[in-house]
Amino acid sequence: MPVTDISTDAENLTMTVAADFAAPIERLWHAFTDPAQLERFWGPPGWPATFTEFDFTVGGKALYYMTSPQGEKSGGSWEFLNILEPHGFDVIDAFADADGNPIEGMPAMRMTFGFESTDTGSRMINTSHFDSAEALEQVVAMGAVEGTRMAMAQLDAVLQDLREYAQGKGTRVELLDDTHVRITRLVNGPRELVWRAHHDAELVKKWMLGPDGWEMTESVVGTEVGQSYRNSWAPVGDTEGEPFGFEGEVLLIDAPRRAVTTERMQGMPTQTLNDLNLYEEDGATLVTVLIEYPDKETRDMILATGMADGMEESFARLEREVLEPTRS
After folding, report:
1. How far is the C-alpha of 229 from the C-alpha of 171, rounded, in Å?
2. Could you say which of 29, 220, 285, 316 is the most buried, measured as most Cβ atoms within 10 Å of its Cβ?
């Protein structure tokens, strides 16, 4: 976790975030001033940002919105006040509507981004200056502290070369809090094909099988919001176990980047929210699945089934059976 400190100062009406990174100051600067890189971390897990405008000049504006798993949008704007490469920049940060106009009744603040070199890399100091104690309290009450902490925790993956960050590390499971788990796996193939492998029933049947000894008996995919999907498996040969399956509904589709679905075991009422994100760099795709569980007990019970091991075997099969043949 790169964030070392988040503090609020009611007397000086500020919120300050300090974070250390094992990357040079120039690399940190580019992460904060390139909208394509900002989109990968500016927004907590489950609320990724999309920048629609980025005029990085004094007096220029950046417009963005963050999208929830249910498709809700929360917009924001930056007006650049000064820029001093690579040491920092200042903006007026405001909540914005779909047209980029400030939302009445929502606080605006002056936000300073400062970057400095350290013995181990670089440090960011981000300070938000509020007009009143009420504005500071409003932003904190909206979850700004924890949201910022979780957003900045995504920066390590951005600052490193993607293959350096994830190649050869298999399927990784991160417990973000009691109900959220992030699963990541780098697969050696282009995003368009990885997306199709998740949304083409014939391709799904080739790789989404978990451990050896199981076959997929049914695959009905959902490719539009509101559609249902259903996948079923059964043991083959001497494999022990009972047939089972999962089903759910599509809540959001942003091909080939993001798909959000509900998921429940067939015949069971308990469901999770699965947020699939795909990011491609240098011919490899980072698959990220953010799972929201109804409670900690359900989270622990499902993880204890060996779910991550089964996902790793499926991802390995995806590379072997679907992606590698396209390179021959």
Report:
1. 24
2. 285
pTM above 0.85, yes or no: yes
Number of domains forming the structure of the chain:
2
Domain limits for position 43: 3-160
Question: 9 and 105 in one domain?
Answer: yes
pLDDT in tens, 67-101: 999 999 999 999 999 999 999 999 999 999 988 89
What is the model's pLDDT at position 328?
Answer: 61
Q: According to the model, what pLDDT value does residue 266 have?
A: 93
What's the Cα-to-Cα distance from 213 to each of 182, 221, 296, rounded to whole Å? 27, 23, 31
**What is the CATH classification number for the domain harbouring 20?**
3.30.530.20
8 A C-beta contact, residue 251 and residue 69 = yes
In eight-state DSSP terms, residue 206 is H
Question: Smallest Cα–Cα separation from 151: which of 178, 190, 182?
Answer: 182
Q: What is the 3-state secondary structure (H, E, C) of 63-88?
A: EEEEECCCCCEEEEEEEEEEEECCCE
Report the distance separating Cα 152 and Cα 286, nearest Å.
18
Give me the chain's average pLDDT, please.
94
pLDDT for the residue numbered 156:
86
In whole angstroms, give the CA distance from residue 183 to residue 276.
10
Residues whose CB falls within 8 Å of the CB of residue 63, separated by 6 or more in sequence, listed in order: 51, 52, 53, 54, 75, 76, 77, 96, 100
